[in-house]
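Case study 2.
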Amino acid sequence: MARLLAPETLSNTAEFTVSELSQALKRTVEDAYGHVRVRGEISGFRGPHSSGHCYFALKDESAKIEAVIWKGVAGRMRFKPQEGLEVIATGKLTTYPGSSKYQIVIESLEPAGVGALMALMEERKKKLAAEGLFDEARKQLLPYLPEVIGVVTSPTGAVIRDILHRLEDRFPRRVLVWPVRVQGEGSAEQIAAAIRGFNALEPGGPIPQPELLIVARGGGSLEDLWSFNEEIVVRAAADSMIPLISAVGHETDVTLIDFAADKRAPTPTAAAEMAVPVRADLFVEVQGYARRMLSCWSRGQDFRRNELRAATRALPSASELLALPRQRLDGASSSLPRALRANTHAHHRRFAQAAAGMTLKVLRAQVSHSAHRLEVSGTQLQRCARATLRHRRERFEGLAVRLQASKLANQQAQRMRIAREQERLQRLAERARRALVTLLDRRQARLDSSAKLLTALSYRGVLARGFALVRDAEGRSVHAAAAVGAGARLNVEFADGRVGVTADGERPPGAATDKPSVVHKSAPKRTPKAVDQGSLF
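Prediction:
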């Protein structure tokens, strides 16, 4: 008897395809667990995939679970995954039907404990130090008395009040505050943007560029100060052209920005003390310099006065200095009349000799000679002018011939260039036409493939294989025989149409309440193909 009932019992068991069973398991896992927090060690992480997604596993001593971080989430994460690091992952538990395994889709990631953070910090410190960001040669000297001081900190904390109070006590200066978040999501990006923003200001603009920057935050745990260990903040501090003081935490707190900054202050108050000197001390120092300058000036005047008196005593008297010139003047005065008479006689003799040589015949000969030279010079000038004109004309004719040849060559080159461009344009138009045809063919093929897939996944394909879909009078699907009462009106849909029927109230023996509502006939079972998960996009 059992052998006779076995086929009937098997025929009443619900039949699932592999895809339906995978989807049912997926819904069960997601509904039962939803968002979870998992602690484990990152294993198998080799960096982001070419698609931008991250794939790895979380493991402990006895188990392992696959994990994935989508591209958009990975780009927004403040903490990046690293191989061998113990982390706490928060995400959604789901399944991957393509390989029949469950996995966690991570939405946030954080290190597990201070030890992991310290290890990550040391590794990042070695990497940045190898790039030379911590070298002493990169550090700048702080200005002695800056006119404008830029402060990057939270506007609501006690840090900015301490800095302003200390500056007011020591030497009041103009302070520009760039408000940022000093911990939490997005704080590292805000701090780096503030440093680069101060450097981007124009020195003579409406908002002047600060001469000194202070990056400050109060004390806290390593997790609270982690924003100042981010690589983006350290690189911004190292690239700053404005001298920068790091004042993060208390004296015992150490962050990576301390190594990249030009000066490290143990506290924000100490940073304000490093920024400016004490005004009262400067007044005392200036007064001391003034007294010393006045004393030096007095001693210098006394020394010059003594030197002038000594030089005055060593100089000779005026009568002694003029005695010799007076004697020479007397000698020259006594010899001047004789010298004038002798000079007059000498000029008279020279005049007489010149007058004897200037006769009418000599003058005519000189005029004739000058006229002959003028005529010869005129003839030579005419020959030179004609030769120069002929040479210029020949040169201009040669240049005209060369210009005409160059014009013809340029026209020919332009025609050839236009022909080449037209040929290139035709080739590009042909390539564009072929590319458009190829693109249209590919799009048509994708459309046909999608239509075939839609047809294959439609329930009407199941009806075409001989199955039927049962609905009640209100059009709702009937999932179990227990839901059908005696005399109930039913609507049975086949592949070629619908048929209205009335239930007789009798149930087949062994019917279960979870019997599927789809009535099927005996037909050769087909093994459905596994649906490929496809691209993760």
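The chain is about 50% helix and 15% strand.
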